[in-house]
Amino acid sequence: MSLGPIMVDLAGTQLCPEDRDLLRQPAVGGVILFARNYHDPAQLTALTAAIHALREPRLLIGVDQEGGRVQRFRDGFTRLPPAGRFGTLYAQDPRRAVAACTAVAWLMAAELQVVGVDFSFAPVLDLDRGLCQVIGDRGFGSAAEPVATLASAWAAGVRLAGMASVGKHFPGHGGVTADSHTHLPCDERDLADLLAADLVPFRRLIEHGLEAVMPAHVVYSHLAPEPAGFSPFWLREVLRERLGFSGVIFSDDLNMAAAGAGGDYVERAQAAARAGCDMLLICNNRPAAGAIVDAFRGQTDPTAQLRLLRMHGRGRLLRERLHEEARWHEGLHQVALLEDLQTLDLDLTLGDPTRPENHS
To answer: How far apart are CA 193 and CA 178, in angstroms?
Structure first.
Protein backbone atom coordinates (compact mmCIF):
# COMPACT_ATOMS: atom_id res chain seq x y z
CA MET A 1 0.00 0.00 0.00
CA SER A 2 1.34 3.46 -0.87
CA LEU A 3 1.11 6.64 1.19
CA GLY A 4 -2.07 8.56 0.45
CA PRO A 5 -2.31 12.36 0.12
CA ILE A 6 -4.31 13.09 3.31
CA MET A 7 -2.90 13.83 6.79
CA VAL A 8 -5.41 13.55 9.64
CA ASP A 9 -5.44 14.03 13.41
CA LEU A 10 -6.48 11.93 16.41
CA ALA A 11 -8.76 12.68 19.34
CA GLY A 12 -6.83 11.13 22.22
CA THR A 13 -3.68 9.55 23.57
CA GLN A 14 -4.26 6.13 22.02
CA LEU A 15 -5.87 4.74 18.89
CA CYS A 16 -9.56 3.89 19.02
CA PRO A 17 -11.23 1.53 16.51
CA GLU A 18 -12.49 4.50 14.46
CA ASP A 19 -8.93 5.86 14.25
CA ARG A 20 -7.58 2.52 13.08
CA ASP A 21 -10.24 2.25 10.38
CA LEU A 22 -9.49 5.76 9.12
CA LEU A 23 -5.71 5.34 9.15
CA ARG A 24 -5.98 2.13 7.14
CA GLN A 25 -7.75 3.96 4.30
CA PRO A 26 -5.44 4.10 1.24
CA ALA A 27 -6.01 7.85 0.83
CA VAL A 28 -4.45 8.54 4.25
CA GLY A 29 -0.70 9.09 4.33
CA GLY A 30 0.04 10.69 7.66
CA VAL A 31 -1.00 11.78 11.14
CA ILE A 32 -0.48 15.14 12.81
CA LEU A 33 -0.29 15.08 16.59
CA PHE A 34 -1.34 17.80 19.05
CA ALA A 35 -0.94 18.40 22.78
CA ARG A 36 -4.14 16.44 23.43
CA ASN A 37 -2.40 13.34 22.04
CA TYR A 38 0.43 13.55 24.56
CA HIS A 39 0.70 12.46 28.19
CA ASP A 40 4.32 11.42 28.60
CA PRO A 41 7.16 10.05 26.45
CA ALA A 42 6.30 6.40 27.13
CA GLN A 43 2.67 6.90 26.08
CA LEU A 44 3.75 8.82 22.98
CA THR A 45 6.22 6.11 22.00
CA ALA A 46 3.44 3.51 22.28
CA LEU A 47 1.08 5.67 20.20
CA THR A 48 3.56 6.26 17.38
CA ALA A 49 4.47 2.55 17.35
CA ALA A 50 0.79 1.66 17.02
CA ILE A 51 0.39 4.13 14.13
CA HIS A 52 3.49 2.86 12.35
CA ALA A 53 2.38 -0.77 12.77
CA LEU A 54 -0.82 -0.19 10.79
CA ARG A 55 0.71 0.21 7.34
CA GLU A 56 3.73 -0.46 5.17
CA PRO A 57 5.25 1.89 4.22
CA ARG A 58 4.48 3.31 7.62
CA LEU A 59 2.34 6.42 7.92
CA LEU A 60 4.16 9.71 8.39
CA ILE A 61 3.84 11.33 11.82
CA GLY A 62 4.32 15.09 12.19
CA VAL A 63 3.88 17.69 14.93
CA ASP A 64 4.32 21.42 15.50
CA GLN A 65 7.36 21.47 17.77
CA GLU A 66 8.74 24.88 16.83
CA GLY A 67 9.54 26.09 20.35
CA GLY A 68 8.16 29.00 22.34
CA ARG A 69 4.39 29.23 22.23
CA VAL A 70 4.06 26.52 19.56
CA GLN A 71 5.40 23.37 21.18
CA ARG A 72 2.88 20.54 21.47
CA PHE A 73 4.97 18.20 23.65
CA ARG A 74 6.28 19.90 26.80
CA ASP A 75 6.51 17.84 30.01
CA GLY A 76 9.24 15.26 29.43
CA PHE A 77 10.70 17.29 26.56
CA THR A 78 13.11 20.20 26.62
CA ARG A 79 11.25 23.52 26.63
CA LEU A 80 12.55 25.14 23.47
CA PRO A 81 13.04 28.89 22.98
CA PRO A 82 11.04 30.76 20.33
CA ALA A 83 12.84 31.35 17.05
CA GLY A 84 12.89 35.09 17.71
CA ARG A 85 15.35 34.58 20.52
CA PHE A 86 17.94 33.31 18.05
CA GLY A 87 17.37 36.52 16.09
CA THR A 88 17.97 38.59 19.22
CA LEU A 89 21.23 36.75 19.81
CA TYR A 90 22.19 37.11 16.13
CA ALA A 91 22.08 40.89 16.45
CA GLN A 92 24.69 40.62 19.24
CA ASP A 93 26.82 37.70 18.05
CA PRO A 94 25.96 36.08 14.67
CA ARG A 95 28.42 33.20 14.99
CA ARG A 96 27.15 32.22 18.41
CA ALA A 97 23.54 32.48 17.24
CA VAL A 98 24.16 30.14 14.30
CA ALA A 99 25.86 27.58 16.56
CA ALA A 100 23.02 27.80 19.10
CA CYS A 101 20.39 27.39 16.40
CA THR A 102 22.05 24.27 15.02
CA ALA A 103 22.46 22.73 18.47
CA VAL A 104 18.87 23.39 19.58
CA ALA A 105 17.46 22.14 16.29
CA TRP A 106 19.38 18.88 16.70
CA LEU A 107 18.01 18.57 20.23
CA MET A 108 14.43 19.11 19.08
CA ALA A 109 14.76 16.59 16.27
CA ALA A 110 16.52 13.95 18.37
CA GLU A 111 13.90 14.14 21.12
CA LEU A 112 11.13 13.62 18.57
CA GLN A 113 12.89 10.84 16.69
CA VAL A 114 13.39 8.66 19.76
CA VAL A 115 9.65 8.65 20.45
CA GLY A 116 8.77 7.78 16.84
CA VAL A 117 7.79 11.18 15.39
CA ASP A 118 9.08 11.66 11.86
CA PHE A 119 9.27 15.46 11.61
CA SER A 120 8.24 18.83 12.99
CA PHE A 121 6.50 21.46 10.88
CA ALA A 122 9.40 23.88 11.21
CA PRO A 123 11.23 26.17 10.70
CA VAL A 124 9.03 29.24 10.32
CA LEU A 125 10.57 31.28 7.49
CA ASP A 126 8.18 34.23 7.74
CA LEU A 127 9.71 37.64 8.39
CA ASP A 128 8.46 39.16 11.64
CA ARG A 129 7.59 42.65 10.43
CA GLY A 130 5.68 43.44 13.62
CA LEU A 131 2.39 43.22 11.72
CA CYS A 132 1.19 39.64 12.14
CA GLN A 133 0.66 38.64 15.74
CA VAL A 134 0.17 34.98 14.84
CA ILE A 135 3.77 34.98 13.55
CA GLY A 136 5.61 37.30 15.95
CA ASP A 137 8.52 35.60 17.67
CA ARG A 138 7.78 32.33 15.85
CA GLY A 139 9.92 33.95 13.13
CA PHE A 140 13.69 34.39 13.46
CA GLY A 141 13.50 38.14 12.82
CA SER A 142 12.55 40.91 10.44
CA ALA A 143 15.50 41.01 8.02
CA ALA A 144 15.69 38.46 5.21
CA GLU A 145 19.41 37.62 5.31
CA PRO A 146 19.68 36.89 9.07
CA VAL A 147 16.44 34.87 8.90
CA ALA A 148 17.82 32.86 5.98
CA THR A 149 21.09 32.24 7.82
CA LEU A 150 19.42 31.14 11.05
CA ALA A 151 16.83 28.99 9.28
CA SER A 152 19.61 27.30 7.32
CA ALA A 153 21.39 26.56 10.62
CA TRP A 154 18.15 25.12 12.02
CA ALA A 155 17.66 22.88 8.98
CA ALA A 156 21.29 21.73 9.22
CA GLY A 157 20.86 20.76 12.87
CA VAL A 158 17.65 18.88 12.15
CA ARG A 159 19.31 17.05 9.28
CA LEU A 160 22.21 16.00 11.53
CA ALA A 161 19.63 14.19 13.67
CA GLY A 162 18.18 12.40 10.63
CA MET A 163 15.04 14.52 10.29
CA ALA A 164 13.54 16.51 7.41
CA SER A 165 12.51 20.17 7.70
CA VAL A 166 9.28 21.88 6.62
CA GLY A 167 9.67 25.58 5.78
CA LYS A 168 6.54 27.66 6.27
CA HIS A 169 4.50 29.69 5.30
CA PHE A 170 5.38 30.16 1.61
CA PRO A 171 5.76 32.80 0.19
CA GLY A 172 5.64 34.63 3.54
CA HIS A 173 2.92 35.37 6.12
CA GLY A 174 4.63 38.31 7.78
CA GLY A 175 3.27 41.11 5.58
CA VAL A 176 -0.36 40.89 6.75
CA THR A 177 -2.13 41.63 10.02
CA ALA A 178 -5.00 39.12 9.83
CA ASP A 179 -4.74 35.66 11.39
CA SER A 180 -5.53 33.03 8.74
CA HIS A 181 -6.99 30.76 11.43
CA THR A 182 -9.93 33.18 11.67
CA HIS A 183 -9.79 35.44 8.57
CA LEU A 184 -8.53 35.44 4.99
CA PRO A 185 -5.47 37.75 4.92
CA CYS A 186 -4.64 39.76 1.80
CA ASP A 187 -1.11 40.91 0.92
CA GLU A 188 -0.99 43.57 -1.81
CA ARG A 189 2.76 43.51 -2.50
CA ASP A 190 4.10 42.60 -5.93
CA LEU A 191 6.42 39.74 -6.84
CA ALA A 192 9.53 41.93 -6.94
CA ASP A 193 8.97 43.00 -3.32
CA LEU A 194 8.44 39.41 -2.19
CA LEU A 195 11.49 38.13 -4.09
CA ALA A 196 13.66 40.83 -2.53
CA ALA A 197 12.65 39.98 1.04
CA ASP A 198 10.12 37.33 2.11
CA LEU A 199 11.19 34.75 -0.46
CA VAL A 200 14.90 35.03 0.37
CA PRO A 201 14.81 32.46 3.22
CA PHE A 202 12.83 30.02 1.08
CA ARG A 203 15.25 30.39 -1.82
CA ARG A 204 18.25 29.89 0.48
CA LEU A 205 16.90 26.74 2.13
CA ILE A 206 15.77 25.29 -1.20
CA GLU A 207 19.31 25.74 -2.50
CA HIS A 208 20.50 23.73 0.51
CA GLY A 209 18.05 20.84 -0.02
CA LEU A 210 14.93 21.82 1.96
CA GLU A 211 12.75 18.71 2.12
CA ALA A 212 9.28 20.24 2.44
CA VAL A 213 7.33 23.50 2.26
CA MET A 214 3.95 24.60 3.62
CA PRO A 215 2.19 27.46 1.79
CA ALA A 216 0.28 30.25 3.49
CA HIS A 217 -3.48 30.68 3.49
CA VAL A 218 -2.89 34.24 2.28
CA VAL A 219 -4.07 35.91 -0.94
CA TYR A 220 -1.39 37.94 -2.75
CA SER A 221 -3.96 39.94 -4.66
CA HIS A 222 -1.69 41.52 -7.29
CA LEU A 223 -0.42 38.10 -8.34
CA ALA A 224 -3.16 35.46 -8.02
CA PRO A 225 -6.83 35.45 -6.98
CA GLU A 226 -6.63 32.47 -4.61
CA PRO A 227 -4.61 31.86 -1.43
CA ALA A 228 -1.09 30.57 -2.09
CA GLY A 229 -1.96 27.04 -0.97
CA PHE A 230 -4.61 26.82 -3.70
CA SER A 231 -2.61 28.64 -6.37
CA PRO A 232 -0.91 26.96 -9.34
CA PHE A 233 0.93 30.25 -9.88
CA TRP A 234 2.58 30.08 -6.46
CA LEU A 235 3.09 26.33 -6.15
CA ARG A 236 3.90 25.32 -9.71
CA GLU A 237 5.21 28.44 -11.43
CA VAL A 238 7.08 30.14 -8.56
CA LEU A 239 7.94 27.37 -6.09
CA ARG A 240 8.58 24.45 -8.45
CA GLU A 241 9.76 26.20 -11.61
CA ARG A 242 11.30 29.50 -10.55
CA LEU A 243 12.82 28.39 -7.24
CA GLY A 244 13.51 24.81 -8.33
CA PHE A 245 11.89 23.16 -5.30
CA SER A 246 11.64 19.36 -5.62
CA GLY A 247 10.43 18.38 -2.15
CA VAL A 248 7.03 17.82 -0.53
CA ILE A 249 4.35 20.51 -0.49
CA PHE A 250 2.06 20.20 2.54
CA SER A 251 -1.13 22.22 2.58
CA ASP A 252 -1.84 24.18 5.71
CA ASP A 253 -4.87 22.99 7.67
CA LEU A 254 -7.92 22.89 5.41
CA ASN A 255 -10.12 23.46 8.45
CA MET A 256 -8.79 27.01 8.97
CA ALA A 257 -11.15 29.88 8.20
CA ALA A 258 -8.95 31.23 5.39
CA ALA A 259 -9.11 27.87 3.62
CA GLY A 260 -12.81 28.48 3.06
CA ALA A 261 -11.78 30.46 -0.01
CA GLY A 262 -11.30 27.07 -1.66
CA GLY A 263 -14.94 26.02 -1.25
CA ASP A 264 -16.41 23.26 0.91
CA TYR A 265 -14.02 20.77 2.49
CA VAL A 266 -13.82 18.39 -0.44
CA GLU A 267 -13.58 21.26 -2.92
CA ARG A 268 -10.77 22.95 -1.03
CA ALA A 269 -8.85 19.65 -0.79
CA GLN A 270 -9.26 19.09 -4.53
CA ALA A 271 -8.22 22.68 -5.27
CA ALA A 272 -5.09 22.35 -3.14
CA ALA A 273 -4.18 19.09 -4.85
CA ARG A 274 -4.70 20.57 -8.33
CA ALA A 275 -2.54 23.53 -7.37
CA GLY A 276 0.32 21.20 -6.49
CA CYS A 277 0.05 20.12 -2.83
CA ASP A 278 1.35 16.58 -2.25
CA MET A 279 -0.25 16.10 1.18
CA LEU A 280 -3.40 17.77 2.49
CA LEU A 281 -3.92 18.46 6.20
CA ILE A 282 -7.38 18.36 7.76
CA CYS A 283 -7.41 18.89 11.52
CA ASN A 284 -10.05 19.05 14.26
CA ASN A 285 -12.89 18.03 11.96
CA ARG A 286 -13.35 14.26 11.68
CA PRO A 287 -16.48 14.43 9.45
CA ALA A 288 -14.60 16.62 6.95
CA ALA A 289 -11.60 14.29 7.12
CA GLY A 290 -13.82 11.33 6.31
CA ALA A 291 -15.41 13.13 3.37
CA ILE A 292 -12.02 14.14 1.94
CA VAL A 293 -10.61 10.64 2.36
CA ASP A 294 -13.62 9.20 0.53
CA ALA A 295 -13.26 11.76 -2.27
CA PHE A 296 -9.58 10.87 -2.77
CA ARG A 297 -10.12 7.13 -2.77
CA GLY A 298 -8.09 5.52 -5.55
CA GLN A 299 -6.08 8.65 -6.38
CA THR A 300 -2.32 8.14 -6.52
CA ASP A 301 0.62 10.24 -7.67
CA PRO A 302 3.87 8.26 -8.05
CA THR A 303 6.00 11.41 -7.99
CA ALA A 304 4.40 12.60 -4.76
CA GLN A 305 4.91 9.12 -3.32
CA LEU A 306 8.66 9.35 -3.80
CA ARG A 307 8.74 12.78 -2.20
CA LEU A 308 6.69 11.67 0.81
CA LEU A 309 8.84 8.62 1.51
CA ARG A 310 11.81 10.94 2.08
CA MET A 311 9.98 12.50 5.04
CA HIS A 312 10.39 9.42 7.22
CA GLY A 313 12.72 9.91 10.16
CA ARG A 314 16.18 8.42 9.78
CA GLY A 315 17.44 8.79 13.35
CA ARG A 316 19.14 5.82 15.00
CA LEU A 317 19.28 7.00 18.62
CA LEU A 318 17.54 5.15 21.45
CA ARG A 319 15.73 7.22 24.08
CA GLU A 320 17.63 5.59 26.94
CA ARG A 321 20.92 6.53 25.26
CA LEU A 322 20.00 10.06 24.24
CA HIS A 323 21.39 11.61 27.43
CA GLU A 324 24.79 10.12 26.65
CA GLU A 325 25.08 12.18 23.45
CA ALA A 326 27.42 15.17 23.50
CA ARG A 327 25.07 17.00 21.11
CA TRP A 328 22.20 16.59 23.57
CA HIS A 329 24.21 18.25 26.34
CA GLU A 330 25.28 21.03 23.97
CA GLY A 331 21.65 21.64 23.02
CA LEU A 332 20.62 21.89 26.67
CA HIS A 333 23.50 24.27 27.32
CA GLN A 334 22.38 26.54 24.49
CA VAL A 335 18.75 26.47 25.65
CA ALA A 336 19.86 27.56 29.13
CA LEU A 337 21.89 30.44 27.70
CA LEU A 338 19.04 31.56 25.48
CA GLU A 339 16.65 31.68 28.43
CA ASP A 340 18.57 34.71 29.68
CA LEU A 341 17.84 36.73 26.54
CA GLN A 342 14.96 39.15 26.50
CA THR A 343 12.34 38.26 23.87
CA LEU A 344 9.05 39.61 22.61
CA ASP A 345 6.16 39.62 25.08
CA LEU A 346 3.31 38.92 22.69
CA ASP A 347 -0.32 38.17 23.43
CA LEU A 348 -0.55 34.46 22.70
CA THR A 349 -3.29 33.69 20.25
CA LEU A 350 -2.26 30.33 18.86
CA GLY A 351 -1.54 28.87 22.28
CA ASP A 352 -4.55 30.37 24.08
CA PRO A 353 -6.10 27.47 26.04
CA THR A 354 -9.56 28.94 25.50
CA ARG A 355 -9.26 28.38 21.75
CA PRO A 356 -9.22 25.04 19.91
CA GLU A 357 -5.87 23.74 18.77
CA ASN A 358 -5.03 24.82 15.25
CA HIS A 359 -2.26 23.91 12.89
CA SER A 360 -0.18 26.48 11.05
So the answer is: 20
Q: Is the pLDDT of residue 289 over 50?
A: yes
Quick check: helix, strand or coil at residue 71? strand
- Extents of the domains making up the chain: 6-338
Report the pLDDT value the prediction gives residue 360, as an integer from 0 to 100: 67
Q: How far is CA 84 from CA 119, 147, 305, 343, 348, in A?
A: 21, 9, 34, 7, 14
Q: What is the pTM of this model?
A: 0.92
The sign of the dihedral angle between the CA atoms of 342, 344, 346, 349 is negative
Checking DSSP bridges between strand 60-63 and strand 119-120, what pairing results, if any? parallel
Report d(CA 331, CA 112) in Å as an integer. Answer: 14
Task: Identify the CATH class of 6-338.
Answer: alpha beta
Annotated active-site positions, please?
181, 252
Q: Give the number of other Cβ atoms within 10 Å of residue 268's Cβ.
A: 26
